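Chapter review. Work through the record for Tryptophan--tRNA ligase before attempting the end-of-chapter questions.
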Amino acid sequence: MSQIVLSGIRATSRLQLGNFLGAVINFVKFQQPGNTCMYFIADLHSLTTMESPEEIRGNLIEIVKDYIAAGLDPEQSIIYAQSSIPEISELCLYLSMIQQVGELERIPTFKEKIKKNPDNVNLGLLTYPVLMAADILGPKATLVPVGEDQVPNVELARSLARKFNNRFGETFILPEMMTEMIRVPGLDGKKMSKSDADNAIELSMTIPVIRERYLKFGVTDIERKLRSDPGDPYKRCQSVYPVHELVTVGEIEIRAIANACLKAEIGCVECKHQLVDNIAKVLEPFQAARVEIVDKNDFVREVLHEGGKKARALIIETVKEVREKIG
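Structure tokens for Tryptophan--tRNA ligase:
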């Protein structure tokens, strides 16, 4: 079945390992005949917490390079900047007219943002999910691969689609999410985040630097005091074993690392070394491809320009339909 696949990443910094394993690898997999793949850089969303225009512009270009180095093909995927489609903001305004403020205030991501930015609780933070709904509903996306933290926002988009359809007639498709979502832990065991440099592994880091960071900061089983003590990789190894499950070939099927830990046949230091060896197998091809396009800023701008035209052509039709229905 053909899908309109849509997802975006904020332009707050360069991509890190969590983005790569949790999102971008899946983006590439969706590049199948029949699918329309739309991947954007959410530079408007970035304005809620960032104040440097130069930093946002720079990150926009660098993230697109990361996309392309990871395997996104501009001939197969529409890659664009959110801000290049003015109709997204227009649709956000229309959707806001049928969205209750109280519901937005209860969304977990809003509560989290105001905790992190108590001195900058702006309107953009509150309406963030409505803008995200416009991103999704504008091109009538059928599949939205997101992390678990963004599930409430996609649910709100589905709710807005239902409200609009019930009031004005069938217009929007209710987007679906992936049934299995990947959570990539950071070095401290919490979700790896671009906004928390201390817990993240940046894609631009060399393998020796990644190794040093895992050896120094990676959280394993804190109850395992001696090398001869059996460990618990499933419940107590917070930041190392979960990444093994994502990058170590065959681990999900045969559980070689897990069983060795449970039997005290492998120590935490050795486990970290094996993890970084397997991360290297995934990252080194990406890093080599990234070198090939490091200076191709004009090419990236052309990709964004062409992607923006394609995306806008789809979204304009939806917004035109919305305008006609709301009067």
